Amino acid sequence: MTVRHLIGQDVGLPWLLPVALDFLRETAPEGALTGWYDDDLLSAVLTRKAPMWRESSPAWARHLNQTVGMLTELSPYIQREVDEFHAAVAGLL
């Protein structure tokens, strides 16, 4: 089972989410330049429910928001997930 699968099933989020957020942040500049990005991991992270962001760590929501802001040319389905994430955590950003 991969990290994205575990995150998508809300397994081990206190340990896996910070690792995933750091990985996404590290790869964002290259992804923005090449137009390619790890949509599966990004999708798994973006689609965590709003209470998780509020209860676990609002700083993680801000971290993800900054990373997403570095990206360009997102696929329509990822852009929709970004928009839903923004709506869910608007008070935390």
What is the topological layout?
Elements: H1 3-8, H2 13-34, H3 39-46, H4 50-56, H5 58-69, H6 76-88
Describe this structure in words.
- By secondary structure, this protein is mostly helical.
- It is about 75% helix and about 0% strand.
- The chain has helices spanning about 5-10, 15-35, 40-45, 50-55, 60-70, 75-90.
- Helix 3 (about 40-45) runs parallel beside helix 6.
Cα shape: globular
Radius of gyration: 12 Å
| Low-pLDDT segments, ≥5 res | none
Summing up helix and strand content along with how strands pair, one would put the structural category as mainly alpha
E-strand count: 0
The overall pLDDT, averaged over residues, is 89
Give the distance, in angstroms, between the N- and C-terminal Cα atoms. Answer: 31 Å
Number of helices: 6
Strand content: under 5%
What are the key terms here?
93 residues, mainly alpha, single chain
What is the compact description of this entry?
With 93 residues, the chain is mainly α. The chain is 73% helix and 0% strand. Helix 3 (39-46) packs parallel to helix 6 (76-88).
